[in-house]
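ArsR family transcriptional regulator
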Amino acid sequence: MDLFAALAEPNRRRMIELLSRGPRAAGDLAQAFPLSAPAVSQHLKALREAGLVRVEVDGQRRIYSLDLEGLAAVDAWLDRIRGFWGGRLDALETALREETE
């Protein structure tokens, strides 16, 4: 699944926010949502397939944590967008200043 398609879903974004505080077991994550355990598992699967989270098996438990490589890809995209607009907004600011002087 595409990174941004995975992040488009509000429950998945909330899962990312929760995992930003540290690794959590799937069961712990499920308690934070008004969803069934299978629904939470499907959301976690989508996040894992998008490369945003990773999972470790600890006996019967699945421990989820953020995958920093996937988040770096999101950050890199945002940097490209910021770079595109940053220069244009600076040019607009300069033009507006010149116009008012």
